[in-house]
Amino acid sequence: MLISGIDEAGYGPTLGPLAVVAVAAETDDQAALFAELAAYGVKDSKRIHKPGTLRPLEAVALPAARWWSGQQISTAAEMFACLGEDHQRSDLPWVSAAASLPLPVAATPCTWTLPAQPRLLGGHLVHPAAFNATITRGLNKSDLEWELVADLLVRLHPLGAQTTTVDRLGGRAFYRDLLTTLWPSDTIKTEREDTTVGRYLCGDHLVQFCVGGETVSPLTAVASCLAKYARELHMILFNRWWCQQVPGLAPTAGYPQDAVRWLDAIGDQDVQWRGRLVRLR
Question: Which CATH number applies to 2-237?
């Protein structure tokens, strides 16, 4: 039995990356897998993460990343690489320190043993330049989010018969037409569409977009934790770098109200990095 989950972190904040993550695992005993994930504390990242400390989130996300990747993952750069981001490709000066941010940051190291086989860990980390390019193409943030999710669905599809649970994308309730654009040769069968779930059979791939997807599938909750963890590591690097540039600057979590305060505090500074101008707004 193949199970997969997709979720995001950073859609609402003004500052910091948008992270979208997918995980897939194969198991002969779904109930045992779900019970083991619950025992390790897996649940929606919003219920785990505590402002001011990375420990609870990291205690779940880092061993999950290590199990799914099969790698030790000892730095933030290695964590980002698991999700498709090479820090050397980034135009952001604070990301250059990712290789020197050791993991874990706060949690006690641990190793997971799960009654399953990891099949896929993938994702996207979207920074200002990529987001601005989306706007230039005439698209909005919702369009960008769908493009990222769609790419992960396309990566999952060749793995075979599976159930993928996606945390529903904002207020979007209907997905059949979008899925048809991904797999035009497949017959997309709508199994259910209402205010809480859109469920579609795409060949032998069942894709469901659920309100509160993290409570429907523990794998979606794992994806949520990994996306949030990657974003929080980026915000550590972001705040360290900017607080060095602007004496007395208070760190930010990037959410809209505090982002206004933070942007006012840094003023109109131009930041040159590798011969290019870094713009945050």
Answer: 3.30.420.10
Percent of the chain with pLDDT over 90: 75
Q: What is the CA radius of gyration of the chain?
A: 19
Contact 8, 167 (CB under 8 A): yes
Closest C-alpha among 92, 69, 120, 106 to residue 229: 106
Provide the mean pLDDT of the chain.
91
Tokens of 79: 């964590």
Distances (CA, A) of 256 to 14, 48, 162, 243: 5, 21, 37, 19
User: Which of 77, 127, 80, 84 minimizes the C-alpha distance to 98?
Assistant: 77
- Give 273's strand partners: 276
Per-residue DSSP letter, 172? -
What is residue 281's predicted lDDT score, i.e. its pLDDT?
Answer: 47
Calculate helix-pair angle for 218-245, 55-69, nearest 10 degrees: 120
For the stretch 53-65, pLDDT in tens is 999 999 999 999 9
Looking up tokens 């990291």, which residue turns up? 58
Q: Among all chains, which residue has been given the structure tokens 């509160």?
A: 212
Largest CA-CA distance found in the chain, in angstroms, rounded: 59
DSSP 96: G
